[in-house]
Amino acid sequence: APELKGTRWGLHKKPADWTVKQTDTMHWLQRSNLKTARAWRIKQALRSIYATATTPDEANPLLKRWLSWASRCRLEPFKRLGRTISKHLPGVLNGFHPGKHNGRVEAMNRALQEARARARGYRRVENFIAMAYLIAGKLTHLPASPFAPFLPVPHETT
Questions:
Q1: Which percentage of the chain shows pLDDT scores above 70?
Q2: Does 90 map to a domain?
């Protein structure tokens, strides 16, 4: 639609990162009665729950209020998302426990995927497993790299 021209990147960014032009465009969109504007408001409401709630007890009433809104919104993708979140609500709320996340696992997975892509596949699975141990194992007994610049050992002064 021509009236939505220039809104794509503003819709994807958080408001703090908008340019001046995107700010003007998004303020116009918020005042409009388009489905896109309603969808953006619902998305921002869910995003704010994840930004502010720090425990499951804080998130539960906020999510239930958002689920109620999503179920009545007349936008089928958000109704479907609301049903999915409702079905998995205990697991979603577990994500709000402080200090419990899978960030380390995701980082390790990313490193392994990069190693696999860099090598364009290994001839044997054993080679990939060995590379996985080298990358993710944080081994400390390996010798220094022969390609590293030589650093003299500091002498003790008495």
A1: 87
A2: yes
